[in-house]
């Protein structure tokens, strides 16, 4: 893996974790949104990642690994999906979105879970920054050898 490849891997991790943090922030901001444009409560969103790979099939990857070390290409966001779990029901007969029994369908967002996910995304972001800084430090040390 070359110098620029390791920077690309770290940068792809930073980008992916930034998207994850944006979606988590959107979930937290809409934790009490009972009506969206389509008339339903807000649905929690999740980010799906996958490895960016230069190889196609498993046999191609196996052949490449047997010839030389396989260098990964980082990570990318494949899609943002909606959580299909049930909405929470809260008894609030005075709410404008209450049904005939007085229950309001609330978003399927758990703020505590979202905060844990935010901490995880922040730590992953920091790990990618550390990786990039370590790569830069090694390059600077290599340049100092020639002095």
Automatic annotation (TrEMBL):
<dbReference type="Pfam" id="PF06429">
    <property type="entry name" value="Flg_bbr_C"/>
</dbReference>
<protein>
    <recommendedName>
        <fullName>Flagellar basal-body rod protein FlgC</fullName>
    </recommendedName>
</protein>
<dbReference type="GO" id="GO:0071978">
    <property type="term" value="P:bacterial-type flagellum-dependent swarming motility"/>
</dbReference>
<comment type="subunit">
    <text>The basal body constitutes a major portion of the flagellar organelle and consists of four rings (L,P,S, and M) mounted on a central rod. The rod consists of about 26 subunits of FlgG in the distal portion, and FlgB, FlgC and FlgF are thought to build up the proximal portion of the rod with about 6 subunits each.</text>
</comment>
<feature type="domain" description="Flagellar basal body rod protein N-terminal">
    <location>
        <begin position="7"/>
        <end position="35"/>
    </location>
</feature>
<dbReference type="InterPro" id="IPR006299">
    <property type="entry name" value="FlgC"/>
</dbReference>
<dbReference type="Pfam" id="PF00460">
    <property type="entry name" value="Flg_bb_rod"/>
</dbReference>
<keyword id="KW-0975">Bacterial flagellum</keyword>
<keyword id="KW-0282">Flagellum</keyword>
<dbReference type="InterPro" id="IPR001444">
    <property type="entry name" value="Flag_bb_rod_N"/>
</dbReference>
<keyword id="KW-0966">Cell projection</keyword>
<dbReference type="GO" id="GO:0030694">
    <property type="term" value="C:bacterial-type flagellum basal body, rod"/>
</dbReference>
<feature type="domain" description="Flagellar basal-body/hook protein C-terminal">
    <location>
        <begin position="101"/>
        <end position="144"/>
    </location>
</feature>
<dbReference type="InterPro" id="IPR010930">
    <property type="entry name" value="Flg_bb/hook_C_dom"/>
</dbReference>
<keyword id="KW-0969">Cilium</keyword>
<comment type="similarity">
    <text>Belongs to the flagella basal body rod proteins family.</text>
</comment>
